[in-house]
């Protein structure tokens, strides 16, 4: 497991100020030794410096028979229920946002002993320890799985999450800590964690290895896309070799809150023809009109290209994160579709039917 943990550490992105809760001191060392050279070039992404880009082919794709992502014989849902959860163990818990980021996000890995057979894009439930104000056990909270089915250690025996610590001030001016997110972010290696699921079919990956996969994430909404991208670019599978176009848009408040940035840049280096990466750093970047750089603002820079891609029947859009992003993205699609005399609401319905428009926002 130590070698596997080191392999994980070599791949996972850590800001220089990361906190690490790890059972292995050598893991800590490995993380800090990870080369960070290329990472720097991207902070200004979209901020004026033209980054290297993969070329998008606009040729019509060869027709492939569409296989529903939901009709998957091996797909497991609800194997573990709240009354009898799987008891996993925390193997690693790492803060992946910088100290000056607004809020903390942690990446954590739990053991599953291969008993929680999930697919990329599914979620698990976590039941935090303790009881609620009525003395009843806490209810489960759902978290998108942030690892591929092979897991961060490549042995199909772990599951990873990307969790934002919820802290807010209520109407009475008191500071309130979210129950489960704080439980998870405070977990120490070796601690038990009650896991339910896996659940969810909406965010499963398309089966076509030549598909165009457009991923739209805000904050921790990146979780399912890290899973997709590890499968596409960091792993070898006998029955799956990604040769399409994966295009990730990630919206975060500050550059110190860019999640898994170095991993994604490594992928971009490895597969420049198959992977595009665009960040929207809302509190540091603006568009030409001086507007806040939200994910939809960044997408608008590629509006025509995105619209062309959406007309292909092997383009799949996935959206995950803040609820507010859905309307923002719909708004730009409405105007794009209108240019072709298309009603976006109707078009989107068709895309949804064909599993080409997939949304999990909260
Ligand atoms: C399918 C799905 C996947 C998810 N995946 C992830 C994930 O990958 N990562 C992740 O971090 N989260 C994810 N979430 C959210 C997660 O389930 C929890 O809701 C989140 O962690 C907060 O839970 P908590 O127990 O910490 O907070 P709780 O103790 O449940 O408190 C949350 C409640 O606090 C109140 N509240 C919150 N903010 C404010 C505010 N600013 N002002 C006033 N009241 C407020 C609201 O009533 C809210 O319902 C996902 C949710 C879903 C449905
Ligand atoms: N499967 C799921 O359903 C799922 C999975 C994972 C996470 N989530 C949810 O996703 C959310 C992610 O939050 P987070 O705290 O991790 O994110 P975060 O770090 O706060 O980043 C969110 C980014 O989105 C921006 N933003 C705010 N309003 C927006 C809008 N209307 N349109 C587009 N962008 C907008 C924010 O900008 P400013 O802050 O500068 O305004 C910020 O840059 C949480 O609510 C989490 O529960 C859901």
Automatic annotation (TrEMBL):
<keyword id="KW-0274">FAD</keyword>
<feature type="binding site">
    <location>
        <begin position="252"/>
        <end position="253"/>
    </location>
    <ligand>
        <name>NADP(+)</name>
    </ligand>
</feature>
<comment type="similarity">
    <text>Belongs to the ferredoxin--NADP reductase type 1 family.</text>
</comment>
<dbReference type="InterPro" id="IPR001709">
    <property type="entry name" value="Flavoprot_Pyr_Nucl_cyt_Rdtase"/>
</dbReference>
<comment type="pathway">
    <text>Energy metabolism; photosynthesis.</text>
</comment>
<keyword id="KW-0560">Oxidoreductase</keyword>
<keyword id="KW-0809">Transit peptide</keyword>
<dbReference type="InterPro" id="IPR035442">
    <property type="entry name" value="FNR_plant_Cyanobacteria"/>
</dbReference>
<keyword id="KW-0285">Flavoprotein</keyword>
<feature type="binding site">
    <location>
        <position position="360"/>
    </location>
    <ligand>
        <name>NADP(+)</name>
    </ligand>
</feature>
<dbReference type="Pfam" id="PF00175">
    <property type="entry name" value="NAD_binding_1"/>
</dbReference>
<dbReference type="InterPro" id="IPR015701">
    <property type="entry name" value="FNR"/>
</dbReference>
<dbReference type="InterPro" id="IPR039261">
    <property type="entry name" value="FNR_nucleotide-bd"/>
</dbReference>
<dbReference type="InterPro" id="IPR001433">
    <property type="entry name" value="OxRdtase_FAD/NAD-bd"/>
</dbReference>
<keyword id="KW-0602">Photosynthesis</keyword>
<dbReference type="InterPro" id="IPR017927">
    <property type="entry name" value="FAD-bd_FR_type"/>
</dbReference>
<feature type="binding site">
    <location>
        <position position="292"/>
    </location>
    <ligand>
        <name>NADP(+)</name>
    </ligand>
</feature>
<dbReference type="GO" id="GO:0004324">
    <property type="term" value="F:ferredoxin-NADP+ reductase activity"/>
</dbReference>
<keyword id="KW-0150">Chloroplast</keyword>
<dbReference type="GO" id="GO:0015979">
    <property type="term" value="P:photosynthesis"/>
</dbReference>
<dbReference type="InterPro" id="IPR017938">
    <property type="entry name" value="Riboflavin_synthase-like_b-brl"/>
</dbReference>
<keyword id="KW-0521">NADP</keyword>
<feature type="binding site">
    <location>
        <position position="144"/>
    </location>
    <ligand>
        <name>NADP(+)</name>
    </ligand>
</feature>
<protein>
    <recommendedName>
        <fullName>Ferredoxin--NADP reductase, chloroplastic</fullName>
        <ecNumber>1.18.1.2</ecNumber>
    </recommendedName>
</protein>
<feature type="binding site">
    <location>
        <begin position="282"/>
        <end position="283"/>
    </location>
    <ligand>
        <name>NADP(+)</name>
    </ligand>
</feature>
<keyword id="KW-0249">Electron transport</keyword>
<keyword id="KW-0813">Transport</keyword>
<keyword id="KW-0934">Plastid</keyword>
<feature type="binding site">
    <location>
        <position position="220"/>
    </location>
    <ligand>
        <name>NADP(+)</name>
    </ligand>
</feature>
<feature type="binding site">
    <location>
        <begin position="321"/>
        <end position="322"/>
    </location>
    <ligand>
        <name>NADP(+)</name>
    </ligand>
</feature>
<dbReference type="GO" id="GO:0098807">
    <property type="term" value="C:chloroplast thylakoid membrane protein complex"/>
</dbReference>
<feature type="binding site">
    <location>
        <position position="164"/>
    </location>
    <ligand>
        <name>NADP(+)</name>
    </ligand>
</feature>
<feature type="domain" description="FAD-binding FR-type">
    <location>
        <begin position="83"/>
        <end position="205"/>
    </location>
</feature>
């Amino acid at each position: 497991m130590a070698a596997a943990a080191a392999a994980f550490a070599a791949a996972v992105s850590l800001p220089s100020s990361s906190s690490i809760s790890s059972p292995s001191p050598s893991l800590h060392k490995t993380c800090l030794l990870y080369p960070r050279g290329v990472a720097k070039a991207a902070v200004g992404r979209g901020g004026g410096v033209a980054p290297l880009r993969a070329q998008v082919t606009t040729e019509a794709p060869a027709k492939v028979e569409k296989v529903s992502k939901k009709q998957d014989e091996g797909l497991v849902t609800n194997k573990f229920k709240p009354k009898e959860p799987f008891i996993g163990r925390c193997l690693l818990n790492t803060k992946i946002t910088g100290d000056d980021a607004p809020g903390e996000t942690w990446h954590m890995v739990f053991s599953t002993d291969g008993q929680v057979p999930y697919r990329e894009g599914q979620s698990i439930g976590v039941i935090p320890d303790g009881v609620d104000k009525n003395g009843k056990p806490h209810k489960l909270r759902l978290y998108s799985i942030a690892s591929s089915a092979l897991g961060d250690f490549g042995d199909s025996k772990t599951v990873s999450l990307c969790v934002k610590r919820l802290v807010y001030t209520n109407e009475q001016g008191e500071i309130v800590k979210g129950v489960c997110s704080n439980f998870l972010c405070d977990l120490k290696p070796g601690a038990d964690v009650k896991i339910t699921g896996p659940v969810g079919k909406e965010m499963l990956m398309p089966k076509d290895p030549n598909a165009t996969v457009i991923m739209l994430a805000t904050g921790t909404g990146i979780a399912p896309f890290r899973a997709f991208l590890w499968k596409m670019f960091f792993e070898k599978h006998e029955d799956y070799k990604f040769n399409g176009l994966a295009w990730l848009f990630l919206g975060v408040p500050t550059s110190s809150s860019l999640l898994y940035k170095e991993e994604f840049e490594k992928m971009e280096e490895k597969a420049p023809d198959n992977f595009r990466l665009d960040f929207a750093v809302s509190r540091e970047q603006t568009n030409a009109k001086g507007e806040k750089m939200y994910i939809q603002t960044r997408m608008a820079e590629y509006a025509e290209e995105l619209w062309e891609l959406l007309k292909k029947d092997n383009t799949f859009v996935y959206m995950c994160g803040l609820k507010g992003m859905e309307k923002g993205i719909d708004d730009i699609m409405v105007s794009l579709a209108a240019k072709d005399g298309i009603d976006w609401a109707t078009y989107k319905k068709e895309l949804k039917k064909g599993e080409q428009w997939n949304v999990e926002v909260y």
